[in-house]
């Protein structure tokens, strides 16, 4: 079984230099809509049987634009939400550091899987999304598309590859990139087929 993971398109907060916004909601920019449309055109040839999407606006909008070309039924699953940033939700890097400089420095070093203050860490994201994937692979639809977030994709791939969850930030996951996993039902394991495939985005030019 193949599982395609699509990161959402560019969101408005990216223009305000918010690299991570967690559960804080934001819609797509016009360029993000173009990215989602291009991803849908690419995925139309993949034979997607069903789409599962995070409930956040940026993923639902990405699904809407992509599914114009795919035409598959859509389910919303909360397990696909981005990592929860807790006290850092809606704050930029300077504001996060001001809350607790020592903790911010330890988190930024990324030598362990520290949680966001009063939020999630990578392991928690992995556990909730891995449970969902193991539920979905029991269903008859194949292949499927999950429209989700960079934090989710990084957590899944880093664990499935045996990298260690703290190394997940070494994985580049661009807006509307496609990452594909293959599930082996006999071994009950996931393998990585492609990572951060952006071929369909070539030629798109950001207005910035």
Spell out the helices and strands N to C: EHEHEHHHEHEE
Secondary structure category:
alpha/beta
User: What is the alpha-carbon Rg in Å?
Assistant: 17 Å
Largest sheet: 6 strands, mixed
Parts with pLDDT < 50 across at least 5 consecutive residues: none
Mind telling me the CATH class?
Answer: Alpha Beta
- Summed up, the helix count is 6
**Terminal-residue CA separation:** 39 Å
Helix content: 25-40%
Instruction: Please name the fourth-level CATH homologous superfamily.
Output: Phosphoglycerate mutase-like
Query: How many structural domains does the protein architecture include?
Result: 1
CATH topology value? Rossmann fold
Which CATH-level-2 architecture?
3-Layer(aba) Sandwich
The amount of beta strand, in percent, is 15-25%
The geometry reads as: globular
Tell me, rounded to a whole number, the average pLDDT. 91
The strands making up the biggest β-sheet line up spatially as 3-2-4-1-5-6
Describe this entry's structure for a reader.
With 208 residues, the protein is an alpha/beta fold. It has one domain (2-84, 121-201): Rossmann fold (3-Layer(aba) Sandwich). It has 6 helices and 6 strands; from the N terminus they run βαβαβαααβαββ. It has helices at residues 30-43, 57-70, 93-99, 101-109, 122-136, 150-160, and strands at residues 2-7, 50-53, 74-76, 144-148, 178-184, 189-197. The chain has a 6-stranded mixed β-sheet with strand order 3-2-4-1-5-6. Helix 1 crosses helix 2 (57-70). The mean pLDDT is 91.
């Amino acid at each position: 079984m193949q599982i395609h993971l699509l990161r959402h398109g560019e969101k408005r907060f990216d223009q305000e230099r918010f690299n991570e916004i967690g559960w804080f909601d934001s819609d797509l920019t016009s360029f993000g809509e173009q990215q989602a449309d291009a991803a849908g055109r690419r995925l139309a040839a993949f034979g997607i049987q069903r789409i599962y999407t995070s409930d956040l606006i940026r993923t639902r909008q990405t699904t809407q634009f992509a599914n114009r070309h795919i035409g598959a039924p859509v389910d919303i699953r909360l397990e696909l939400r981005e990592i929860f940033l807790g006290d850092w939700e809606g704050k930029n890097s300077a504001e996060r550091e001001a809350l607790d400089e020592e903790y911010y420095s330890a988190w930024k070093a990324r030598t362990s899987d520290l949680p966001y203050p009063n939020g999630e860490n990578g392991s928690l994201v992995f556990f909730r999304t891995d449970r969902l994937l193991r539920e979905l692979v029991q269903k008859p639809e194949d292949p499927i598309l999950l429209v989700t977030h960079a934090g989710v994709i990084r957590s899944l791939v880093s664990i499935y590859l045996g990298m260690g969850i703290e190394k997940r930030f070494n994985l580049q996951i661009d807006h509307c990139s496609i990452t594909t996993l293959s599930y082996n039902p006999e071994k009950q394991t996931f393998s990585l087929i492609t990572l951060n495939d952006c071929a369909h985005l070539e030629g798109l030019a950001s207005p910035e």
